[in-house]
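Annotated sample (chain length 178).
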Amino acid sequence: MRCSGATALALTMLSLALGAAAARAAAYSPGCDQIPVFYGTPPWGFTTGPPLGEVGSFARGHGEINLEANTVSGILCQEQRARGRPTRAITMTVERHLLYHSHYAVMWGYPGNVMKIHVRVQASNDPGCDVGTVGRATLFASYNGVRSDSVQFSFPAACGDQDHLYHGSEVNNQVPPR
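Output written by the structure step:
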């Protein structure tokens, strides 16, 4: 079978695109090992505190944001540890469009900045949470010297074990003001 030049070019381009997509997917592993804890003030970022040892859960993430263009990017992770069971971990990337942002939010009775983003699972070792699942993350950073930050993950039912709310003095969130 002979291919025309255009067909051969199209097949080559398709092969390169599929290879690039596979390389991007292979670039992630489940969990937080490849995501450093942010220090200082990134455009946005959070940590829910240190890993809690043998039991408990934690998450962290960071990225870029352009409020004028209403776009966001970044990487997040979450690990849940239970005694006698394997760690359930996911790594997520941020979908491009910012869902919501406000400098005038109130949560937990305190004013602060909030942003809501869609996240897509890129790597998972949680049997109920497939790669490609889209969820939502809400990040709240209190201000005026109060420490009442929070991060909340919400996923569809199939990935519902990854729904989690982190709130309290261990949570450190940087959400940009307008």
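Annotation: Residues 6-25 have pLDDT under 50 and may be disordered.
Annotation: The helical segments are 5-26.
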